[in-house]
């Protein structure tokens, strides 16, 4: 192993190190994704996509750490595997770049498909929320003087929404009923106990 490593050129050593690091990061990202950790949200490059055209349809951002790692992964392993077979270094770089770009495109396409599948299960709050019951999560100031939060059950799923009330202040933990949908994220509620008089 030591003889093989010392026989490599400086460029080959750098390529091996960067590719192995990208592979390790890719494995960690994959494991964290499968256990439900939000890897990409914490590792996005701080780039405004509107400045450089990086925001693609469906709100998927091109300039993320995950895409950078995917590109390095495709580029690095292609260059390593074809290094001895492709004599022209320029051709090797071109092929490696194309494979890196293709890998990024494939992964982004898969994430877009997963995103569409997730969105297809969304609840239509306007149709389903009125009449649902739940509990106050954050105290709701009375007379629509401020916002609170409620957790309600819609279609066997517990959801959290911003809430207003026309009545008195409703404290945390109080049972409520939804009387109106103000918008997709805000509900008008009233205390459930006040309905049973």
Describe, in plain words, how this protein is organized in 3D:
The protein has helices at 2-7, 10-34, 39-43, 49-52, 65-82, 89-119, 125-128, 192-195; strands spanning 55-56, 60-61, 133-138, 148-154, 157-164, 175-183, 186-191. The protein has 197 residues and is an alpha+beta fold. The strands form 2 sheets. A 5-stranded mixed β-barrel has the order 3-4-5-7-6. β6 (175-183) and β7 form a beta hairpin. The longest helix is centred in the middle third of the chain and has 31 residues, at 89-119. It is rod-shaped and about 80 Å long. The model is unreliable at 39-59 (pLDDT under 50).
Please give a quick description of this structure.
By secondary structure, this protein is α+β, with helices and mostly antiparallel strands. The protein has helices at residues 2-7, 10-34, 39-43, 49-52, 65-82, 89-119, 125-128, 192-195; strands at residues 55-56, 60-61, 133-138, 148-154, 157-164, 175-183, 186-191.
Cα end-to-end separation: 83 Å
Q: For the residues shown, what is the average pLDDT?
A: 80
Number of domains: 2
Order of strands in the sheet with the most strands? 3-4-5-7-6
Shape: rod-shaped
| Contiguous helical run count | 8
Q: What would you report as the Rg, rounded to the nearest angstrom?
A: 26 Å
């Amino acid at each position: 192993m030591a003889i093989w490593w010392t026989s490599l050129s400086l460029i080959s050593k750098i390529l091996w190190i960067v590719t192995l690091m990208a592979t390790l990061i890719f494995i960690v990202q994959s494991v964290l994704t499968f256990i439900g950790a939000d890897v990409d949200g914490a590792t996005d490059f701080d780039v405004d996509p509107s400045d450089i055209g990086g925001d693609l349809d469906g709100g998927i951002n091109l300039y993320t750490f995950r895409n950078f790692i995917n590109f390095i992964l495709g580029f690095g392993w292609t260059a390593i595997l074809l290094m001895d077979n492709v004599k022209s270094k320029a051709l090797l770089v071109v092929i490696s770049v194309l494979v890196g770009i293709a890998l990024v495109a494939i992964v982004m396409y898969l994430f877009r498909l997963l995103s569409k599948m997730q969105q297809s299960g969304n609840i239509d709050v306007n149709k389903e929320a009125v009449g649902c019951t739940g509990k106050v999560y954050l105290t709701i100031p009375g007379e629509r003087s401020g916002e609170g939060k409620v957790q309600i059950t819609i279609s066997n799923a517990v959801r959290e929404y911003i809430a207003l009330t026309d009545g008195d202040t409703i404290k945390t933990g109080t049972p409520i009923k939804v009387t109106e949908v103000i918008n997709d994220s805000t509900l008008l509620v009233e205390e459930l106990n006040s309905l049973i008089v």
